[in-house]
Each structure stands twice: as C-alpha cells, then as structure tokens.
Design goal:
Elements (H helix, E strand, L loop, with lengths): L1 H12 L2 H40 L3 E3 L16 E2 L2 H8 L3 E12 L5 E8 L19 E5 H7 L6 E7 L5 E12 L4 H4 L2 E5 H8 L4 E2 L1 E4 L11 E3 L1 H4 L1 H39 L1 H9 L4 H37 L1 E2 L16 E2 L5 H23 L7 H6 L4
Parallel strand pairs: 4-8, 5-7
Antiparallel strand pairs: 1-10, 1-11, 2-9, 3-4, 3-6, 3-10, 6-7, 12-13
Helix pairs in contact: 1-10, 2-8, 2-10, 2-11, 8-11, 10-11
C-alpha cells in the first residue's frame, strides 16, 4: 500500500509532464477503440445487408456453378424436382435463374446478368412485387442505373441467348430503381419475373440458384450447399485487411506515448538517486523501490483510460447515434465493397476492455525496463549522487 501511495504522490508532483504523457496515451486508447469500433460496425452492417439482399441463410448452387467464373453460368441450371418445388411452396427457398445478356443503353453496349426471381418471394428485400402485372419489365439498382445512365420508365434493349444458343432481343421498361448497399446485387444485374425469363429462354421449371431462409436446411437433392461463412468470406477478408491498416496507425500513436513514459522513467531514476538511496537505507527492499517506479509508469495508462473515457464517451455516443458518413468519399459499391453511405460504429465491452488491458500492460512493461536498474544501485553512492 505504501508503494502505491508513494507512486501516486510522485506522479502527481511531476505536474504537466504527467498529463502530457497521459494525454498522448489517451489518444492511442481512443483511436484504437474508435477505429476498431468503426470496422466492427461496418462488419455487422455488411453482414446484415448481404443476408437481407443476397444470401439469406445460405444458398444452393447447381453443380459446376462458380460465382467468379461467368463461363459457368450458361450450363449452371437444372430442372426443379418435386422436393424443391415443395420447399418453394413452403417459402423455405426461392429460385433464381441466371442468364447472360447484353444491354444497349443509348447505343452503347454493356454486359449484364438477367436474374429471374419469384415476384412473390419474401426471403430477400428485393422489391420484386413491383414487377407484378407488368410485361417486359425489369428492376435495377441505383448503382446500375447510374452506370447505364438510366432512370425510371426508361426503355432498354437487351439481347440474350436461349437454351439452344439462338439470339433473341426485346425492349424492357425500367419500372423501379432500388437502393442497395450490396454491389453484387446492385451492379451488373437486371431483375425480372422468373416465369417471364423462363419463357424467353425456354428454360421451363429450371433454376441456377436456390436461396434459403432456413439455416437448418443443408441438403437438397444434387444441389451444392454454400453456407454463410463461405458466402461472406470476401467481406471478412476485406474488413480484416482494413483492420490491419488501422492497427499500424494505432501502433505509432501508442509507441509515442510509451516512448514518453520510458524517457520519463529513465530521467526519474537518474534525477531521483538520493530519493532511491534513502528508501533503501530506510529498509525498503530494492524490489519494493522498483515496484514504486513501475507503478508510477503504469498509473499513466490508468489515468489515460480515465481521461479517454471522459472525452471519448460523448464522441462514441454521437457516432453510434448519427453514424460516420461516407457519402463524400469514393463510391465503395463500384469497387465491389459492401458499405453503406453511413457506417454506425459498434463499441463492444470486449473491445473497450481489451484496449484498456493493452494500454496498461504495455505501459507497465515499458515502466519496468528502466526501473530494474535500481536493483543494482548502491544506496551509499545513491545518497551521495554518485550513481552514473
């Protein structure tokens, strides 16, 4: 207890130097929590949006289909069995028929993907009900509309091949433009009634993908099941890379704070020789004296956490409620990155606790390194001020 009292007294007697060290450490603490909270919030939003708009609780692919290989689309379809039709009727899955096509907006040529889907499905957020009762109608995302320079009620010529390889074309009407943060759903796709697409291509009762809303459903006939861990792997990889970049920035801020503590401790051991010699001469063990100096350094981190909490809490609350706007930055969707215009950070207890532990442990280690020299000090020489 005496060691703690002496450590706190010496720390506060240092005045401005103490608070400068504390402030720099608090910046490292706040930046660590803020950046990782933003990345965690982005991760949660991206996962929720992808599940709501694209994958639900998993997908079933036709054998041989590869979402990264457009050459597999042509042959990646199969006739729906009675079992699959029953699952569709029970709203456990919804079918998707994929067909490559070419759009001609204002005389330009653009490769697109026709996605035929059930207009009565309610597994995904796609507003397919807008297609009901309309002939030669398609939906597109706002990003796709921007790319093709189209707006609602515009007409778009589209050419495709039917199941026999014969070219056909028709003029579609853009009946609705939806907003979506998932680029794989927004960009490069036109959405239409699956029955209309089957009629145009001659692919009666066929589908390329089944989207499931039942996480317990993992096997259907010859369909290949893809769980959400597989379907979200790309997003996780991007977010992990972003998080690594944030660690570099935080590391340098933390390094500055720890260097300040290390320098302060080295100077304290040299400047307070007589005080150290007096402690030892009065019967205090060398390890006890070392602990006093170590506690002084570690206390900087505790004060930094408290100071960071004081000015960081209002900041975190503000961003949690209002989010961080990305609207003025690069178009993330066009780069294939799932990100909303506004990211709402997520600050978990685990994140804050781990940040505090990191600051305290690293400060304690840095404080101990110069303080351990005290164990070799001769008290007589220390009192005389002759220790070099």
């Amino acid at each position: 207890m005496i060691a703690f009292k002496l450590a706190f007294r010496n720390l506060f007697n240092a005045g401005l130097k103490t608070w400068l060290n504390v402030f720099v450490l608090s910046l490292a603490f706040i930046s660590l929590v803020f950046f990782n909270g933003m990345i965690d919030g982005w991760d949660r939003q991206a996962e929720v949006d992808t599940k709501d708009w694209s994958i639900a609780e998993g997908q079933f692919w036709t054998p041989g289909y590869d979402s990264y290989d457009p050459f597999t689309i042509k042959e990646s379809r199969q006739v729906l069995s009675h079992e699959v039709q029953q699952l569709i009727k029970n709203k456990q899955v919804t079918p998707v028929l994929l067909t490559e096509a070419t759009a001609f907006p204002e005389g330009r040529m653009q490769t697109v993907l026709l996605r035929g889907m059930d207009v009565n499905q309610d597994i995904l957020k796609l507003p397919l009900e807008k297609l009901k009762g309309k002939k030669n109608a398609v939906l597109i995302g706002s990003g796709m509309a921007k790319t093709l320079k189209l707006k609602k009620d515009d007409e778009l010529m589209v050419r495709w091949r039917d199941k026999n390889g014969t070219f056909d074309a028709i003029t579609f009407t853009i009946v609705y433009i939806f907003d979506c943060d998932v680029p794989s759903i927004d960009y490069g796709s036109l959405y239409m009634d699956i029955e209309a697409l089957r009629k145009l291509t001659g692919m009666d009762n066929e589908a390329s993908i089944l989207i499931s809303n039942d996480k317990n459903l993992t096997a259907i006939d010859s369909w290949v099941y893809k769980d959400n861990d597989f379907l979200l792997a790309d997003i996780k990889e991007i977010i992990s890379a972003k998080k690594t970049g944030g660690y570099v920035m935080t590391f340098f801020l933390l390094l500055i704070g720890l260097l300040a503590i290390f320098d302060t401790q080295v100077f304290s051991v040299f400047r307070r020789q007589k005080e150290i010699g007096t402690y030892i001469a009065l019967g205090m063990t060398r390890q006890r004296v070392v602990s006093i100096f170590t506690i002084e350094g570690a206390t900087n981190s505790i004060l930094a956490a408290l100071l960071g909490t004081v000015y960081g809490t209002p900041l975190f609350i503000f961003f949690t409620r209002h989010g961080i706007s990305l609207s003025d930055t690069a178009d993330m969707g066009s780069m294939g990155i799932t990100a909303s215009d506004v990211i709402y950070p997520y600050y978990s207890v685990g994140l804050i606790g781990s940040a505090i532990l990191l600051i305290i442990i690293s400060s304690t280690i840095v404080s101990y390194l110069p303080s351990k020299k005290i164990a070799n000090i001769n008290p007589t020489d220390a009192i005389r001020g002759k220790v070099s």
